[in-house]
């Protein structure tokens, strides 16, 4: 029972709603009735149009079918031949009937040019004349028409048939009765009627939905009620004391109340015009036309300041557009102006603290000060610094010249002095007095400041011509010393500077002065570090003929580091190649690098093999680390440095201005950190046998490029870094090198970094070296750095490339010496003959004397095998080797000694001499120059006589 009642009430609701929709008293009912009538009319018209279209389509289909069938039969193979035969009917009748049935035609007739039928569906009509006029077809044209036939009215197509010579031999006519086309149209009529009925149902349903929606939107109101509501809303719209605008989606003004017209001073016919055409302020017009949402945005409108709120109308059921409300906030803006100015300046001071001093570069800091102040405080800012500040020195006072480092706000050509030019202020001018007293100067009107204009009338007039009217000049002062001057300028479009502006400019300049002073001190310390490092690195490699060498050094972004390279000529025309790396940057790393380089040079004078030299160097580093650990060292900042120098530093001079700053420790480093972490690669190349001996302590191995372009990385046994070896022996690798091979030595900064691991770096190095097999060492260095140098290197890079040479075999002479004093003479004579062959007979006497002493000592005190070798290189090298390791010592013999004068004699006559130990004994060597230079006391200047005087028994 309850279900029955519920259903009954539901049906009543539906009926009531339908009646309300169909009621013509409401706006919805009126609209629905009108729409329903329009839909019925449109559906009937559409049905009639579709029926006519179907009939027309059937006729077109019949025409196409008859045309295709007639043309196909007329041009079919054998048709023309059959028409020219003796009995065309016998050959064409059957084919014509078959073609007619397949094509669905009512008739397919072939007849002669005279009109006699050869074929016809009714055999009784064969041989009779066709009734129609086929004259156009006889002219060779295909004719399609609707005409009477033996079957009634039909759609007929007549096609001429020509033989191979182009002569007309007959015609073919194909036709379909019009009655059949009407039947085809009737077959489509149910579909047309169904479509029309469906369209009617859909239209009525759609109209019902539209009416329901309209009823819901109008709340069932009749037109009179809606008119009263509109009048009420219109009264409220114009009565409110807030401007209201409705702007369409196309940017045209749709509605404006009286208050909006008053606030914006709109014309009477403003509606339907674009808001950009109403003479509004550009900012206000652009905002209203933009269509974007806005909340309490303040814009000028004449002498008023209006708070603008904009919201889109589409989400609330309206058309695309915006609803705008305007509120006059001129008085409120005047009251809050000072508070906003104070807030903006606090924000500007905060930004200045964050942006000024981001790097420890004097010029960059001056540019940052100018960038912060323009346009938020001044229209133009220029910054000048004293000349000593740019060099890192502290100003000494007086009227020193300044140099302008930054101009912001105007083109450079409109400034008094160009960026980088020197500035001298006229004595007696307000700015000069302000600098002398370290106080700021305010010039409200530059046009009335004659002293300022007198310092440069032409350029100051150009400033005035560019609209600059007001100036604040604030000395940049830090630690009681004036470093420069900051000038803040305003144009005629801005307010003149006042006392509040002066205090703010002083605060801004004070913050910048601290950063500039930090950058100045960094510049001084950085210059000291650079000078130290450059003095410690080799300025030029020594001359030698065993290798063709090129080198490069690139500092790191964080400053100078501890990478170094060296080339040391060794006895016997050999050359030592060294590349090393000290972890870290700054003075400590540079000083440590100098200590290690000096130690390597000293150890090299002992002519030690690579493994022994690195062993001694490892022991030395361990002792240094132990001593510094015992004494505690001095940390950074304990040497009297001021910790206020800053916490950031620029990179080396090659660093881009936008790079991140490095810490001040990059200048000094940790002076108590010792040398732990240093690495070294030491190689000795012998041009006589073309072999190189390598050893390394924690350092990357070299790259080897053979003359055919093959690139390899020899597996040199690696030992721990210097200071961490713990007394472990260092292993070496000995390689034969063909002449023209290139040995590439480098530090780890070349092959690895923050964005590249070591394997990737080695492959990149391999591909770079492979791509230039015939390059010189200089070209190789250039290509390697171009391909592998990072944009902002995090570590310094040392690169050394050496191309090998072999000593000509004609410049090498060797002899075996038996242990017999009588053998000295023959060997000496052979040596003299060799010197004559080499064109060195002028030093033969000195060489003969040296060889006699060395060979005699080897026979007397040494052991077999005894060998003599002469090398003709940049100097004449004499080497005498034997099988003992006893080292001779130079001493001064007394008058009663029978011996001990041999080495003294050798030392006097040779340019250099020394002893080199080998696995089988030792080698005593001497060098004599070939350029005519002789050591003091030589045989040519009476040295022999003075030496022989030491054997004079009459001497006291």
What is the helix content?
A: 40-55%
Provide the gyration radius in Å: 55 Å
The major beta sheet can be summarized as: 6 strands, antiparallel
- Beta-strand content: 15-25%
Uncertain spans: 633-672, 950-956
Structural class: alpha+beta
Tally of DSSP β-strands = 31
User: Largest sheet, order of strands side by side?
Assistant: 12-11-10-15-14-13
> What count of helical segments does DSSP give?
25
**What's the overall geometry?**
flat
Distance between the termini: 160 Å
Calculate the mean pLDDT score and round it.
Answer: 77
Oligomer: single chain
Characterize this entry briefly.
By secondary structure, the protein is α+β, with helices and mostly antiparallel strands. It is built from 25 helices and 31 strands. A hairpin with an 8-residue loop joins β8 and β9.
């Amino acid at each position: 029972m309850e279900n029955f009642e519920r259903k009954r009430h539901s049906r009543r609701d539906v009926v009531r709603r339908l009646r309300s929709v169909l009621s013509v008293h409401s706006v919805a009912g009126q609209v629905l009735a009108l729409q329903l009538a329009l839909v019925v009319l449109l559906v009937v018209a559409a049905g009639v149009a579709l029926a006519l279209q179907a009939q027309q389509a059937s006729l077109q289909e019949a025409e196409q079918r008859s045309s295709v069938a007639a043309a196909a039969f007329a041009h079919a193979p054998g048709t023309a031949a059959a028409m020219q035969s003796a009995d065309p009917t016998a050959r064409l009748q059957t084919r014509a009937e078959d073609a007619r049935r397949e094509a669905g035609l009512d008739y397919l007739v072939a007849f002669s040019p005279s009109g006699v039928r050869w074929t016809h569906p009714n055999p009784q009509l064969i041989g009779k004349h066709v009734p129609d006029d086929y004259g156009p077809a006889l002219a060779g044209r295909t004719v399609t028409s609707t005409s009477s036939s033996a079957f009634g009215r039909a759609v007929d197509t007549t096609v001429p048939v020509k033989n191979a010579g182009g002569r007309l031999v007959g015609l073919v006519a194909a036709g379909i009765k019009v009655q059949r086309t009407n039947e085809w149209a009737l077959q489509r009529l149910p579909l047309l009627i169904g479509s029309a009925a469906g369209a009617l149902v859909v239209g009525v349903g759609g109209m019902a939905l539209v009416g329901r929606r309209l009823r819901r939107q109008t709340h069932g109101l009749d037109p009179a009620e809606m008119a009263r509501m509109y009048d009420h809303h219109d009264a409220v719209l114009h009565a409110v004391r807030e401007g209201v605008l409705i702007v369409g989606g196309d940017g045209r003004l749709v509605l404006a109340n009286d208050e909006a017209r008053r606030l914006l001073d709109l014309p009477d016919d403003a509606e339907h015009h674009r808001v950009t055409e109403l003479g509004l302020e550009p900012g206000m017009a652009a905002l209203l036309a933009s269509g974007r949402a806005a909340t309490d945005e303040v814009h000028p409108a004449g002498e008023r300041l209006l708070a603008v709120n904009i919201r889109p109308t589409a989400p609330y059921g309206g058309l695309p557009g915006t609803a705008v409300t305007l509120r006059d906030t001129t008085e409120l803006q005047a009251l809050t102006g000072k508070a906003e100015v104070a807030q903006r300046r606090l924000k500007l001071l905060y930004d200045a603290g964050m942006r000024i001093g981001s790097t420890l570069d004097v010029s960059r800091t001056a540019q940052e000060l100018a960038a912060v102040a323009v346009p938020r405080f001044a229209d133009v800012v220029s910054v000048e610094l004293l000349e000593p500040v740019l060099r890192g020195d502290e100003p000494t006072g007086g009227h020193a010249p300044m140099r302008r480092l930054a101009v912001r706000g105007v083109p450079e050509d409109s400034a008094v002095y160009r960026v980088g030019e020197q500035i001298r202020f006229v004595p007696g001018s307000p700015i000069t007095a302000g600098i002398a007293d370290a106080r700021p100067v305010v010039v409200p009107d530059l046009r009335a400041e004659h002293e300022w204009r007198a310092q440069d009338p032409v350029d100051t007039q150009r400033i005035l011509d560019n609209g600059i009217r007001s100036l604040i000049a604030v000395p940049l002062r830090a630690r009681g010393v004036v470093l420069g001057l900051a000038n803040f300028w305003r144009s005629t479009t801005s307010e003149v500077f006042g006392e509040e502006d002066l205090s703010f400019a002083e605060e801004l300049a004070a913050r910048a002065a601290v950063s500039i002073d930090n950058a100045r001190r960094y510049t001084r310390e950085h210059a000291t570090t650079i000078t130290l490092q450059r003095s410690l690195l080799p300025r030029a490699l020594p001359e030698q003929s065993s290798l063709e060498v090129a080198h490069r050094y690139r500092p790191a972004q964080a400053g100078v580091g501890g990478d170094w390279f060296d080339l040391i000529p060794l006895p016997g025309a050999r050359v030592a190649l060294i590349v090393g790396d000290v972890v870290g940057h700054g003075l400590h790393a540079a000083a440590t690098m100098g200590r290690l380089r000096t130690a390597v040079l000293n150890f090299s004078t002992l002519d030690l093999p690579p493994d022994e030299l690195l062993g001694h160097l490892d022991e030395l580093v361990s002792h240094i680390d132990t001593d510094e650990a015992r004494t505690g060292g001095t940390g950074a900042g304990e040497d009297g440095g001021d910790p206020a120098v800053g916490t950031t530093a620029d990179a080396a001079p090659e660093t881009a201005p936008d790079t991140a700053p490095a810490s001040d420790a990059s200048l000094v480093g940790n002076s108590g950190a010792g040398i732990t972490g240093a690495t070294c690669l030491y190689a000795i190349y012998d041009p006589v046998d073309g072999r190189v001996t390598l050893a390394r302590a924690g350092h990357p191995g070299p790259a080897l490029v053979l003359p055919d372009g093959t690139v390899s990385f020899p597996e040199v046994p690696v030992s721990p870094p210097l200071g961490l070896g713990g007394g472990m022996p260092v292993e070496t690798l000995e390689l034969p090198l063909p002449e023209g091979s290139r040995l590439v030595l480098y530090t780890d900064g070349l092959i690895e970094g923050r964005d590249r691991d070591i394997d990737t770096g080695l492959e990149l190095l391999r591909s770079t070296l492979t791509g230039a097999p015939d390059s010189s060492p200089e070209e190789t260095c250039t290509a390697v750095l171009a391909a592998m140098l990072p944009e902002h290197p995090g570590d310094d890079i040392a690169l050394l490339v050496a191309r090998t040479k072999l000593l000509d075999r004609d410049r090498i002479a060797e002899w075996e010496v038996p242990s017999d004093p009588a053998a000295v003479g023959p060997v000496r004579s052979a040596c003299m003959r060799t010197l004559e062959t080499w064109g060195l007979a002028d030093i033969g006497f000195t060489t003969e004397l040296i060889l006699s002493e060395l060979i005699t000592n080897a026979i007397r005190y040494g052991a077999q095998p005894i060998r003599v070798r002469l090398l003709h290189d940049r100097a004449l090298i004499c080497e005498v080797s034997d099988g003992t390791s006893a080292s001779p010592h130079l001493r001064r013999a007394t008058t009663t000694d029978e011996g001990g004068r041999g080495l003294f004699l050798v030392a006097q006559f040779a340019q250099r001499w020394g002893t080199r130990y080998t696995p089988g004994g030792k080698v005593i060597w001497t060098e004599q120059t070939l350029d005519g230079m002789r050591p003091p006391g030589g045989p040519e200047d009476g040295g022999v006589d003075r030496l022989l005087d030491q054997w004079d028994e009459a001497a006291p």
